[in-house]
């Protein structure tokens, strides 16, 4: 089992299968079971401010913050860890087109 440090991934450019930049890694979605952390995917975009407030799929923001956070997350994209094909020193390569990436992480993704 390979161990990764979050700081080795955060801030890296993400390149899609066509060589286009898909965004910057702003957050890592993990699952924690039985003392083991498993990476589920990466949150990409220009900024991850909305997600860093803790609002996402399972925690909904109160009004009027809901609209503001939705606007802040408008450029956010999510890539499943299974779609990551290479983790290089200065970028991450994914096997999908960045245009097909979902708008944000969902627990059932």
List keywords for this structure.
single chain, 109 residues, alpha+beta, SH3 type barrels, six-stranded mixed sheet, 3 helices, globular
Written overview of the protein:
There is one protein chain. This protein has 109 residues and is of the alpha+beta class. The chain has a single domain (6-94), classed as Roll (SH3 type barrels). Helix content is 15%, strand content 35%. The chain has 3 helices and 6 strands; from the N terminus they run αβββααβββ. The radius of gyration is 14 Å and the shape is globular. The two termini are 23 Å apart.
CATH architecture: Roll
How widely separated are the two ends?
A: 23 Å
Strand order of the largest sheet: 4-3-2-1-6-5
Task: State the helicity in percent bands.
Answer: 10-25%
Into how many domains do the coordinates divide? 1
| Name of the CATH superfamily | PRC-barrel domain
Count the E strands. 6
CATH topology: SH3 type barrels
Main sheet properties: 6 strands, mixed
Secondary-structure element string: HEEEHHEEE
Number of helices: 3
CATH classification class = Mainly Beta
**Class computed from helices, strands and strand pairing:** alpha+beta
Flag low-confidence runs.
none
């Amino acid at each position: 089992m390979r161990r990764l440090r979050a700081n080795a991934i955060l801030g890296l450019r993400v390149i899609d299968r066509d060589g286009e930049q898909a965004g910057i890694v702003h957050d890592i979605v993990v699952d924690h079971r039985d003392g083991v952390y498993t990476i589920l995917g990466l949150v990409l975009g220009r900024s991850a401010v909305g997600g860093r407030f803790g609002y996402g799929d399972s925690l909904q923001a109160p009004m009027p913050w809901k609209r503001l956070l939705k606007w802040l997350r408008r450029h956010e994209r999510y890539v499943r860890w299974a779609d990551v094909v290479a983790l290089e020193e200065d970028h991450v390569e994914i096997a999908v087109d960045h245009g097909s990436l979902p708008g944000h992480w969902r627990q059932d993704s």
